[in-house]
Amino acid sequence: MGDCPGKDFLSDLPHGIIERILTKLPIRDAVRTSVLSSQWRYLWATMTQLVFDENCVFVRHGSTFSEKKLFNCIMQCLFLHNGPIKKFSLSTSYWDKYPEMDQCLLFLSRKGIKELVLDIDLLNPLLPAPSAIFFCQQLISLTLCGFELKPPRTFQGFPCLKYLNLEFDAVTTEVVESLISGCPLLEKLKFLNVDHLAFTVRGPNLKHLILEGDFKYINLEHAPLLVAISVEINTEVRC
């Protein structure tokens, strides 16, 4: 094959292939692709999946991690983003350093976010879940780890939610029952590492239930479509 001087093969790649390449890269490297060619410039800003963790921030040899840099990275990406965001994921040990995350989640709610993953370090005390989560009414999948859940009184549920994953989250019986019943399309519930809780599952479309923890009892009589259940650790199941 002969050489083609001046040929920009990167710019000639179909948009769909470029998008697939970007989704395979860490967000930090995806942003850097802007320098590759004219077609790639700011193309990362149309990515529909944004995944952040502490590896997103470049740390020079001998320097320390700066939690502010991670938050600035998130804010910059959201500020420059153009188009819908289907998935947003954040895993960090410094959640309490980001009081502005409620604003970020409000922004995501206006972007039609479908999948949300928020995972905070379990060494920290349980922190209140951002109230803006409950404004994300188009969510299909929600994963929360390490929060204290207290939905606002005006919260009516997630009408589109099909997958709910809760781990190391502090909830009361009233909250968990209200949350499940407020998700009429819920198909899969994963509830891990919860201590001494009793609740009734009211899930008309629930098919898969995964439970792990010290539960007092679980009432499943209102889950007619349930086809698979996994329960671990001192749990009495009443059907």
UniProtKB/TrEMBL annotation:
Q: Which SUPFAM superfamilies match?
A: F-box domain (SSF81383), RNI-like (SSF52047)
* Entries under PANTHER family matching the protein: F-BOX DOMAIN-CONTAINING PROTEIN, F-BOX PROTEIN-LIKE
Q: Which organism is it from?
A: Daucus carota subsp. sativus (Carrot)
Residue intervals of the F-box domain: 7-55
Residues annotated as coiled-coil are: none
Q: Which InterPro entries match?
A: F-box-like_dom_sf, F-box_AtFBL13-like, F-box_dom, LRR_dom_sf, LRR_FXL15/At3g58940/PEG3-like
Any Pfam family hit: F-box
| Highest taxon in the source lineage | Eukaryota
> What is the name of the protein in this document?
F-box domain-containing protein
